[in-house]
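HOLO CASE FILE
Compound: iron/sulfur cluster
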Amino acid sequence: MKIIKSVGKENIAHVYIGNIDNKVIEFAESLDYPKDIYEKWVLTISCLYGCPAKCLMCDAGKYYDGRMSKEAIISQIEYMILKRFPDRNIPVKKFKIQFARMGEPAFNLDVLEVLKELPNLYNAPGLIPSISTIGPKNSEYFFDKIFNIKEDLYKNGKFQLQISIHTTNINKRDELIPIKKLSFTEISQIAEKFVKENDRKITLNFIVLENYPIEPNVIAKYFDPNNFFIKLTPLNPTSNAIKNKLKNSVSSSTDIRIKDLLEEFDYLNYESVVSFGNPEENNIGSNCGQYITNN
Ligand code: SF4
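Model generated. Tokens follow.
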């Protein structure tokens, strides 16, 4: 892989643009400022060249040019790790590798091979791989395999699975994520099998948008609070979000809609978190859904 460009700010985040076989690849790293890298370090890598899902809020869907090989996925991780820890010993307490930049991970089975390989490549006691998915239809095979890998290599809270549904309204979910997806019942059935004692619960992720309802009672009907953890995030400033006229319905993590939702989730026995990142990351372009190559 050849690095074409990098943008970022020390102690906050960097985005790297690389080239593999004449195809563009984007990946990012971020720190949890003001904590130092030894406390928390997050790598966010791509699995596809672009993305065929074309979610309305995400710039990765502007084009699609195929799956990345296992080697292409690992080359992103290698680049960021060897820059900082050339001996492959990574003494970071919370070291996350998120499969979440460009491309839905469930569309690429090489992601499974990468997950199997990571513990052989690095001495990283704090490693937590994190798969972030929109839950495409017929991806039960992918989740079965992920489950086996988690049980073999990443037990006791060392693995994170995030499923982004964004709204409890089925038609609005189809509008925002315009591919066939697992139903809420199917997601719930996957979780029944997936979450074992001492595991992290599955994160159910929602961008808090205007006109896209998040109804705690609907969530409670389908998603067991023993298996799911709720995450609320803002809409990041992607060019597709602007083009598709999507609007944040909250301006900060203390907004009244957020406060009301958190209270209702608490009442329904859900653990929940509001994840508003460092605003500087929006300028750098390292936040979820952002893709800087064409901007
Ligand atoms: S949000 Fe994920 S699945 Fe949707 S277009 Fe972006 S990368 Fe693809």
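CASE NOTES: The CA atoms of residues 114 and 125 lie 17 Å apart. The longest helix spans residues 70-84.
CLOSED: yes
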